[in-house]
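Input record (Table S2, row 369):
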Amino acid sequence: MPIAGIFGPQDLGNPARGRSVASRGGISAAERARALPMPSLQWTPEVERLTAHLYERVRGVIPPVEWPFMAPYVKAINELKEARGAVILAHNYQTPEIFHCVADIGGDSLQLAIEAAKVKADVIVQCGVHFMAETSKILNPNKTVLIPDSRAGCSLASSITGADVRLLRERFPGVPVVAYVNTSADVKAEVDICCTSSNAVAVVESLNAPEVIFVPDQYLAKYVASKTSVKIIAWKGACEVHERFTGDELRSFREADPTVQIIAHPECPPDVLAEADFTGSTAHMINWVRSNHPKRVVMITECSMADNVQAELPDVEMVRPCNLCPHMKRITLPKILDSLLYLREEVTIDPLIAEKARRSVERMVNLKN
Ligand code: SF4
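Output record (iron/sulfur cluster complex):
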């Protein structure tokens, strides 16, 4: 079904944009009081021996000359994680030394949301962007949830506020609202249900409504509209990484090698998806490569994911059009170390907002199960 209409903040007259982010600043007195001793960060033969099994996982994507700078952090983080009783969750867009060497659980937003609800650890360190850490806190209100850099935002999450959703409801009374998980807790609190790019079509259809408001990704909304007979009213948000890909770019990959396989994320514009051999969420893209084992593949998404898949499947040749997410790249080994040393930066959500947001996230998680 063609999309019914696309709305944005200027159509609703709401000037409130974005969210405030905590300033990082120096180490506070409270952080110093609960700090653990600073571990050694020297590259020694012992560090080399103790991290050799981890380097094996990433040797295809991290040159040997770089490992001595990473290994002391990897060893220290894994030891601090144990001392804190912490678990590290990492999104597929994190760099390989994080994804393969310090994370306990890796995956897409849906996988991380489900795992966040199951973890037994007292402390969760979210290696991803701020809305992901908020989702972990929403599902684990009694746990300490940390994000190594609270400035790790998202162009989709900052494109819409809870007030925008209330205005959409006024304009379209009675129409249910679905929010992509790439939204703040404030937005999740105002909608009927959340979705990810893995389950967006199923979530929309689960509402049994003739029309649905879908926020905030206009391209994912268009993709959903192409797969369902439900009328979609979309918001004007976009992922700044995926909207940069073009159909021309994909055609040039195919001209250079007609046998290459091209797989794309549904946050990309429609002319990009029209050129792809397969469209799916990050988890679906990874599973597609595992099952199809192509000789050469272009993954049209954030470029660290190609590195992470390459580390797992060294015989698949990855063609890497490199669009990095600057927000995901704010998370680094030194900041993860700080997070565990000082229990910073803690994610907090107003309990009333968290309670309402939890209903929207749990409704999605329960639908999946
Ligand atoms: S890749 Fe796009 S959707 Fe994902 S965090 Fe970055 S800006 Fe947001």
